Amino acid sequence: MLIFNVGALANQLGVHRNTVTNWIKSGKLAAETTAAKKYAIEKDIFRRFCIGEHIPDEIVEKILTGAFEKPTAPKPRNLHNIPQREPIMRKKNLGSVMVVGGGIAGIQSTLDLADSGYYVYLIEKSPGIGGAMAQLDKTFPTNDCAM
Fold first, then answer.
1. What stretch(es) of the chain map to CATH 1.10.1660?
2. What architecture is the 2-65 domain classified under in CATH?
3. Beta-bridge mates of residue 139
4. How does pLDDT run across 18-44, given as a tens digit for each residue?
5. CA distance linking residue 100 with residue 124, whole number of Å
6. How far apart are CA 45 and CA 47, in angstroms?
7. Confidence (pTM)
């Protein structure tokens, strides 16, 4: 199982991150959503996808073996050798969250949390959502419609 972030995989493949996102949305890259905006895919499926997209074998092998790493800051020398564990990613939702307020910030927070894998309840005291922004006709400085 290969767990990846869209931006990191795009950098490794040498394509834009929107290209990877479009591959996932169209079903071309059969990756499943996991927690914290990460995706999971079987290594064999990923290898077949890369062959179909004519991605060089050297890059594919580096991705699958984990040879591509982000540059990290040097570790302090006085720490003892601490064993590293790979985080456990759940395929189901992480839990539920309640967002109070259906204004622009509440709606954006709801969308971000839902994309991260949470089940979200949006609570608003009035019958409409959008907050004060929904009452505006035009906004400064571009005079665009508020909605």
1. 2-65
2. Orthogonal Bundle (1.10)
3. 144
4. 998 898 888 888 888 887 788 888 888
5. 6
6. 5
7. 0.46
